[in-house]
UniProtKB/TrEMBL annotation:
Keywords: 2Fe-2S, Iron, Iron-sulfur, Metal-binding
Domain (Rieske) ranges: 3-97
InterPro entries from the UniProt entry: Rieske_2Fe-2S, Rieske_2Fe-2S_sf
Cell membrane in keyword set: no
Membrane-spanning intervals of the chain: none
Key word Iron-sulfur present: yes
CDD domains reported for this sequence: Rieske (cd03467)
Organism annotation: Mesorhizobium dulcispinae
Protein name: Rieske (2Fe-2S) protein
Amino acid sequence: MKHEICKVADIPQTGSLIAPFFGREVHVWRSGERIRAAANACLHFGGPLDCKDGALVCQWHGARFDMESGERIEGPAPKGSRLMFLSTRVEDGALNYVWGE
Ligand code: FES
């Protein structure tokens, strides 16, 4: 099954796009040739993330996450925690969340 997140053309070349996702939000960004999507939720207490200086940074207590690997760089999120990436597929110019395939 699939659910459209956004149009590929709307994803900026730098930084991220925040798209609605089943009543929540996801960050969508370009990482080289790949497009990545991750829940806009910190792995500490679920705070919202900003895209800053090439990282996703929590607005609440400052945890930073690497946009390539998703891994926590610093801050109070647990060591070894990682952004919640979505499984996605590009189809007909749109980025889709896919599951159950
Ligand atoms: S909720 Fe993100 S660092 Fe605390």
